[in-house]
Amino acid sequence: MAAAIDESKDRLIADLKLILGDAEALLAATEHQTEANVVNLRKRIDSNLAMAKSKLKDAEAAIVDKTRVVAQSTDHYVHENPWTSIGIAAGVGVLVGLLIGRR
Questions:
Q1: pTM above 0.85, yes or no
Q2: Average pLDDT, stretch 24-49?
Q3: DSSP sequence for the chain
């Protein structure tokens, strides 16, 4: 699951870089190019933006699903092992307290 999230993140970053490149090309094209080139470039940017938005939604859904699974697993563990969970929480609290106290 984590590999799928990393892969989605990498694809999203690549798509966003593509959009930025297209936006830079649009700026350069509007400086000295004809109207037909600008219209074609804007269509390409719109298409890439729609694709990036779709992939962003997919990545968001994957992250939400992963978070939900982790939360359910944690909830199940805490209900099955309440005293162990309390001990772990107390230990983490002591460590955080010690670290804050050193400042």
A1: no
A2: 73
A3: -HHHHHHHHHHHHHHHHHHHHHHHHHHHHHHHS-HHHHHHHHHHHHHHHHHHHHHHHHHHHHHHHHHHHHHHHHHHHHHH-HHHHHHHHHHHHHHHHHHHHT-
